[in-house]
Amino acid sequence: MIDEDDRRPPAPARPRGTTRATAARYLLTPAQLEESLAMTAPPSVRNAVVAGLQATLAVVAALACFHYSPWPQLVGFGALGALASLFGRYASRARRRRMVFLSAFLLVAATFVTSVAAHAGASPTMMVLVLALVAGASTVAVSSWSLGGPGAVIIVFAAGAALGGAGSWEAVFAHAAATAAGGALAWIVCVLTDRLRHEEPATGAFPSDPPRPMRHRLIAAGRIAVGAAVAALVAHAAGWQHPSWAAIGATAVMQGGHLHITMSRALQRMAGTVAGACLVGAILAQSPSFWVVVGLIAVFQFVTEIIIGYNYALGQITVTPMALLMTHLAAPAMAGNMALERVFDTIVGAAAGIVLAVLFSSLDDRAYLARHRGAAARG
């Protein structure tokens, strides 16, 4: 008599080289380091230049407007809202307006949520968890609305700016209103200058990836939320003043669609941040005036949008001083060890991101990495 188990087809064999240990070894090879150093041309240099100009105009306009307004203490939140101009650089004009509007909405929502939590008296640990939830929720929103790069990392950056707390409900709404005003400036700048960009051709030379199934989006968001929480909790336990920077690092690294991209992002982010931190440390040591800082932010913002498409590490060299100078304007008293802490936070965030990416990876993720590494070896 034949046992029913004998009639079942044998289970498919696991593809070779798809264990997590093997994936980790693939990510630590010299070939992976070479990939992270590779230079690639952006889809459109003209659009990169125009995007840099748009972001620079929006951020400088926000900084200047709030500096001369009755609310100069909100200058940092206005500049954060202006970062909505970074989204949709390869989209058609109609789609770009929608994308900038939705990105501004997410920036305002992130600022509002964290400000409310801080005003409600949430403990530092709870604030870190709120930040992680913002990272996960914004990941789902960015994917669902096809907003593309720079992705959820900018939303987490805005949320982190509000971790310092709001003393009253008026301050909570002021933070959100200032961010919304910056977003409105970004939208206006993009509408007025988008004619300078190349329109997305009808054939879709710069196509947007269609949203993945909701289940996949939620899994990706969960991974990023856990990564942001772990990185920020480590930074908080170490006594660092800006645990949100570690969460930003983890979010940026784990946004990569494949493991080899995640590892390249981690290496590039760490290297670029170290160089950028040295640069901004030298700048802040000179005690620059407000307008010198604004001018430097404008230069770094413009240069970033041009070079980051060639290599992510190059962009981090200029993103780091820009972000720290914006933080300096919002909270000058906290400028002391910002540069050094940024390096530590970035290393923690990047390390947590890559470790958790491997631990949470699916069999398909690891099989893709094995095929990619095999193709690179043959090529």
UniProtKB/TrEMBL annotation:
Residue ranges occupied by any Integral membrane bound transporter domain in the UniProt entry: 230-355
Major localization listed first in the record, in broad terms: membrane
Transmembrane segments: 48-69, 75-92, 99-118, 124-142, 149-166, 172-192, 218-238, 274-300, 312-331, 343-363
Alphabetized Pfam families for the sequence: FUSC_2
InterPro entries in alphabetical order: Memb_transporter_dom, MFS_trans_sf
Coiled coil, from the record: none
Keywords assigned: Membrane, Transmembrane, Transmembrane helix
One GO CC term on file: membrane
Cellular localisation: Membrane
Membrane-topology annotation of the record: Multi-pass membrane protein
Identification of the protein by name: Fusaric acid resistance family protein
Species for this entry: Pigmentiphaga kullae
Lineage of source species: Bacteria, Pseudomonadati, Pseudomonadota, Betaproteobacteria, Burkholderiales
